[in-house]
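User: Fold this one for me? It's C1q domain-containing protein.
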Amino acid sequence: MFQPNWWFFVAIVGHVKRLEDDVIELKERDVRLSKENEVLRKQNAVIMEQLSLVMTDIRTLKQEHENLKRQMRTFKKTSIFNKSNGNMSLPFDAFDKRQLTETPVHRVAFLAALTREVSLGYHQQVEFDKIITNEGRAYSSSDGHFIAPYRGLYLLSTTLFNTEGHTLPMEIVRNGIQLAAMFLDNDDYNMASQTVLVVLQQGDRLWVRRFRDSGSANLDATPTQLYNTFSGVLLYEM
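Assistant: Here's what I get for C1q domain-containing protein.
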């Protein structure tokens, strides 16, 4: 009958210890592999997203290519070829005639604001004293007038803010004739605005003024609180 001795038990214990170490190492390796797999999964998601963007760009480029091909076919149909030298010229009607002129483009735009409280009398204009933008130098802060330097379509706007307890009937006028009106009640601090889209002749004057006598009429403003503004821009000449 086999009688295990002390060395046998020592060998068994050593073998079990090695097996336990192998199991621990395998678990740690499994954890590392799981982490690496998660990183790879995220990288794959990023790559797939980038690939999707690339495919979208390719589709867009293909569409643009097709559009260019259609434009070229149209171009050839409306063109006249010189067979002697292979050059191409367009008939005059294929151009927008306005593009053949070399009329300079004039830029006109302004924005001005009020920096102090003012009390307005009947038909007194608002002199927006802080000029923020004045491309074309068509606005004057000395009298609050904008003078159209060119005939064209203009967009003009004003925003006004009254002092509490003051009633202000206000208007935008062209050469003294009302284009738009607004009313600020005296029950509280109130704000009103108007915007006009109008064809102006060269030399037309526009300004903002009080148009009816209704008692005290103050606009509220400070240098750091630019509630009241007057602005305009030339959209295109005519």
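One thing worth pointing out: The helical segments are 6-77.
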